[in-house]
Amino acid sequence: MAEALLTLVTLIVVPVMYFGMKWITKRTGRLFKEQQQYLSALNGFIEESLSG
């Protein structure tokens, strides 16, 4: 009986986690790209400032 319950819980939880992560990734992907571009520009500015 415990094996059947564990299987049922797994079959419910795994798809919910999969689609939840897909939803989160879709919503945060654009923000992550913007952050990386900002950090790239900042690093370039700092490198130019230090190298003279």
From TrEMBL:
InterPro entries: ABC1_TM_dom (IPR011527), ABC1_TM_sf (IPR036640). GO terms for molecular function: ABC-type transporter activity; ATP binding. It is a multi-pass membrane protein. GO terms for cellular component: plasma membrane. Pfam families: ABC_membrane. Its main location: membrane. It is found in: Cell membrane. Gene3D superfamilies: ABC transporter type 1, transmembrane domain. The chain crosses the membrane at residues 6-24. Residues 1-52 form the ABC transmembrane type-1 domain. Keywords: Membrane, Transmembrane, Transmembrane helix. This is ABC transmembrane type-1 domain-containing protein. It comes from Weizmannia acidilactici. The lineage of its organism: Bacteria, Bacillati, Bacillota, Bacilli, Bacillales.
